[in-house]
Design brief:
The protein is built from six helices and five strands; from the N terminus they run ααβαβαβαβαβ. By secondary structure, it is an alpha/beta fold. It has a three-stranded parallel β-sheet with strand order 3-4-5. Helix 4 packs across helix 5 (98-107).
Length: 149
């Protein structure tokens, strides 16, 4: 019923997200995957409505997983299969909430915070980089380590 309600209203892309994703996808040696605390079906709908193309292996959702770290670990494992890699030199988590930052920290990942709502909290908790919106994204920021402090 919730999914039907979600689907009854068209969703708009988060401003700048699609451009950022296309920029990253065009970079050599960059692979994207999506880990979400949402259920899979609404996450697929949101990605599709935003014009974001993806393979099912690139999306890990919370359907059968409760801990955010496990969702992220599943996404990484699936990305290794999808991109045919045994390991990744860098993994950068992106999120808008403290739980995203905490999962990245617990897994030893780099982190980019995004969104104005939790900006000060994410920065005070050590976000390696914070963007108020995806419109601010510059691939040059990837040249520096985005280590959590």
């Amino acid at each position: 019923m919730l999914y039907q309600a979600l689907c009854s209203e068209p969703l708009a892309e988060i401003s700048g997200a699609l451009a950022m994703i296309r920029t990253l996808e065009a970079l050599p040696h960059v692979g994207l995957c999506y880990a979400t605390g949402s259920l899979r079906q609404p996450a697929v709908y949101k990605l599709e409505q935003s014009g974001i193309g993806f393979d099912p292996l690139q999306l890990s959702a919370s359907n059968n997983i409760e801990e955010r770290e496990q969702i992220v670990l599943q996404a990484i494992a699936q990305a290794k299969v999808f991109f045919r890699q045994d390991h990744f030199e860098r993994i950068i988590a992106v999120g808008d909430g403290l739980w995203d930052l905490a999962a990245a920290r617990n897994l030893g990942l780099e982190f980019i915070g995004v969104g104005r709502q939790h900006r000060e909290l994410l920065l005070s908790q050590g976000a390696g980089l914070h963007l108020d919106s995806w419109m601010e994204f510059d691939p040059a920021c990837l040249a520096q380590p985005l280590i959590l402090s």
